[in-house]
Task: inverse folding
């Protein structure tokens, strides 16, 4: 690997290298009772630049858990056309949801049931016409669960839509104008005349196929599907699980009315956790009013249910509470509360985008999960009886393991007390590790097993985590003690001893975070000879709820100054070339990029940004999450609020656009033309304003790409063009 790629060919090959490392996404473990052998199956995601797609790879390890030796390995082999693949509780059966097309090119979904020797049956599930497409593991709605008796499968699917047709269609039946986009119960196969162009509201960015998910149960014996009808019709269902003895179902719902607000990256949406009793047909509310819920998980003995909640409304990602329900009494108890402020390295609270399916240890007391802990992704074990929290990580004194003390960990699941995790650092791609943890209350002497050879450390990159205390004038008077961090990645020093140019990288959200996990973008920038400063400005996740709240009402000032000050501190250390500074970031990171080049016009050589927020006033009525503007501006959100003469001036003043006349920095704009979150018009508005002011601007547009511009070819094009743009503006 070259340490400095400058020519287009070298840049492309550097990008190929950094995208060749797969990322683990999920794991399943099979352990036969009383046996020392475990079969660990992991799914990984890897870029295939030539096929222009992300491939899902299955790897399988057979491990003797007593000795730690790997007895056999299979894969990686590619998995295609599978929405779900789940082994039954006894381990005897496997259910797969497979997608395909029929001869007329119509979408098909099949549920296939296997035993250990053969496929037992295939059910052409859409042909039953009970519901629309089955929902995959989208991290928001989807779940796919065997009943404990193994006779039924529980899943989420889109509610069946009425067929619509033209007024001029002779087959049409029912007149339009009902405003009812759901299927009438009677005469379900008839076509609704005049409704074919009716607007269909969706759950927004990256969830544009989600309209009204419903809970479905397949009886495997009789091949019949029931769509459960007890959930209120203005609520979309998701994350469903079987309750004790398969007598009912626990399910989360999100309210549609008065209209849907985007759900992606937004855990604060009005939602509820219910128990649906299948015998009585009753629906009991389990969660607390005014709290938004996620991720219900029953203990192995089904006596306890845990879930996460945050306040309804407000910033789109916040510090969560861990709540436990004692199933017999339905008594609800907060196990881990929101943490307002955590000095130094104390536990900062729970922040998680996703919870593994299997979190409980066999003692029915402890659970494990990944969470952001300042600039590190950590795995924690929580005692749900007393709320005690312990970090689960490799003892860095273990020289055989040789793991960086700043490594980030991810939790994949626990089964029969065997925990499955992975670790990585900014200069070491992902490695698996597992361990038998028979006493989760004592994590002091765990023997870790590494099923693979340790991934090489990438010697062209070193990194360190820096702590920043806001200077006196920047202290937030309401949240005085909140500090923040940044991660500095340095490329291999050049022979000539010249200092590297610096890319200042700010994350989006603003409520998200950079951690020390392997990061393709930073690795790529370093390979190309740039230092990268990833700034976790106040408002980032993993630093306590006070940090998140400190930014509300202060976007465009506090976050901008945090990034600028971190940059100044790093330049003062003499590790980077302060005369060659570049700015990069997308979404809210693009808001910061465009703010910084406006507020500090003489600082940056060039900038590059993906789908930046540039004008809150014009974005208000076009984004899928207009409440975001209110939350970040510390205003009360009401669905009826309009962008009126009182609101608009305020939004304008917080926006990068208000600094447009000062901008001199050449900027590359990268736009996902299907972005529902920060609509393309934001970038085009900025583009035109710069053109009119004779500022150098280049604009790249990516059809069929959303807010994240994550199609493999589009993302690759963005990355290579960013470096080419920066290289062209190096003095
Ligand atoms: C009205 S969009 C605000 C910005 C956006 N926030 C939430 O979705 C954002 O910054 N997104 C991040 C996660 C990103 O795309 O990187």
Result:
């Amino acid at each position: 690997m070259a340490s400095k790629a400058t020519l287009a060919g070298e840049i492309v090959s550097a990008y190929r290298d950094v995208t060749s490392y797969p990322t683990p996404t999920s794991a399943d473990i099979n352990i036969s009772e009383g046996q020392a052998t475990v079969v660990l199956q992991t799914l990984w995601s890897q870029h295939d630049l030539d096929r222009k797609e992300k491939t899902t790879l299955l790897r399988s390890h057979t491990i003797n858990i007593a000795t730690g030796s790997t007895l056999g390995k299979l894969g990686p082999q590619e998995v295609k056309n599978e929405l779900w693949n789940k082994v039954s509780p006894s381990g005897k059966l496997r259910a797969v949801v497979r997608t395909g097309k029929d001869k007329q090119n119509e979408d098909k979904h099949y549920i296939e049931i296997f035993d250990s020797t053969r496929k037992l049956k295939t059910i052409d599930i859409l042909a039953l016409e009970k519901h629309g497409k089955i929902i995959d593991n989208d991290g928001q709605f989807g779940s796919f669960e065997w009943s404990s008796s193994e006779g039924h499968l529980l899943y989420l699917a889109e509610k069946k839509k009425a067929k619509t047709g033209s007024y001029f269609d002779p087959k049409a039946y029912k007149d339009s104008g009902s405003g009812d986009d759901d299927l009438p119960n009677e005469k379900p196969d008839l076509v609704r005349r005049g409704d074919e162009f009716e607007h269909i509201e969706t759950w927004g960015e990256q969830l544009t196929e989600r309209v009204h998910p419903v809970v479905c149960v397949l009886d495997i014996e009789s091949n019949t599907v029931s769509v459960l009808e007890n959930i209120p019709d203005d609520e979309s269902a998701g994350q469903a699980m079987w309750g004790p003895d398969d007598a009912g179902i626990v399910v989360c719902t999100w309210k549609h009315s008065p209209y849907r607000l985007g759900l992606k990256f937004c855990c604060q949406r009005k939602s509820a956790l219910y128990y649906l009793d299948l015998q009585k047909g009753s629906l009991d509310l389990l969660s607390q009013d005014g709290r938004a819920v996620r991720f219900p998980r029953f203990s192995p003995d089904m006596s306890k249910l845990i879930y996460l909640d945050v306040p309804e409304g407000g910033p789109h990602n916040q510090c969560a509470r861990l709540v436990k329900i004692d199933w017999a009494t339905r008594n609800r108890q907060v196990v881990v509360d929101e943490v307002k402020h955590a000095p130094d390295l104390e536990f900062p609270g729970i922040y998680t985008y996703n919870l593994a399916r299997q979190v409980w240890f066999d003692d029915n007391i402890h659970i494990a999960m990944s969470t952001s802990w300042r600039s590190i992704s950590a795995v924690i074990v929580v005692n749900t009886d007393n709320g005690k929290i312990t970090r689960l990580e490799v003892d860095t004194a273990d020289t055989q393991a040789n793991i960086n003390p700043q490594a980030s960990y991810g939790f994949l699941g626990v089964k029969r007390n065997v925990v499955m995790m992975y670790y990585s650092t900014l200069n070491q791609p992902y490695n698996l590790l597992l361990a038998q943890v028979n006493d989760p209350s004592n994590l002091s002497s765990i023997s870790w097993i590494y099923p693979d050879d340790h991934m090489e450390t990438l010697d062209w990159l070193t990194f360190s985590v820096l702590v920043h205390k806001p200077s006196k004038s920047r202290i937030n008077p309401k949240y005085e003690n909140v500090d923040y961090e940044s991660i500095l990645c340095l490329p291999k020093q050049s022979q000539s001893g010249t200092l590297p140019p610096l890319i200042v990288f700010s994350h989006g959200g603003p409520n998200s975070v950079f951690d020390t996990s392997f990061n393709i973008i930073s690795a790529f920038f370093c390979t190309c000879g740039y230092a990268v400063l990833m700034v976790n400005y106040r408002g980032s996740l993993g630093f306590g709820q006070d940090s998140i709240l400190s930014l509300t009402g202060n976007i465009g000032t506090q976050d901008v100054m945090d990034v600028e000050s971190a940059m100044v501190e790093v330049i003062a250390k003499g590790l980077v070339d302060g005369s060659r500074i570049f700015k990069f970031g997308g979404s809210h990171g693009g808001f910061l990029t465009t703010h910084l080049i406006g507020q500090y016009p003489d600082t940056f050589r060039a900038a590059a940004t993906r789908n930046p927020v540039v004008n809150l006033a014009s974005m208000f009525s076009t984004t899928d999450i207009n409440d975001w503007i209110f939350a970040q501006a510390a205003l009360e959100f009401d669905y009826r609020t309009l962008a009126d003469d009182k609101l608009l001036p305020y939004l304008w003043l917080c926006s990068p656009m208000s600094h447009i006349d000062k901008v001199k920095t050449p900027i590359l704009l990268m736009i996902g033309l299907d972005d529902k979150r920060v609509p393309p018009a934001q970038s085009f508005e900025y583009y035109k304003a710069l053109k009119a002011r004779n500022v150098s601007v280049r604009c790249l547009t990516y059809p069929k790409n959303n807010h994240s511009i994550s199609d493999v070819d589009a993302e690759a094009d963005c990355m290579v063009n960013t470096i080419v743009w920066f290289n062209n503006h190096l003095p």
In short: The two ends are 25 Å apart (CA to CA). Residues 265, 316, 508-509, 512, 586-588, 613, 623, 625, 628, 677-678, 707-708 surround L6A2BGLM (CB under 6 Å). Confidence is low (pLDDT under 50) at residues 179-186. The CA atoms of residues 345 and 374 lie 8 Å apart.
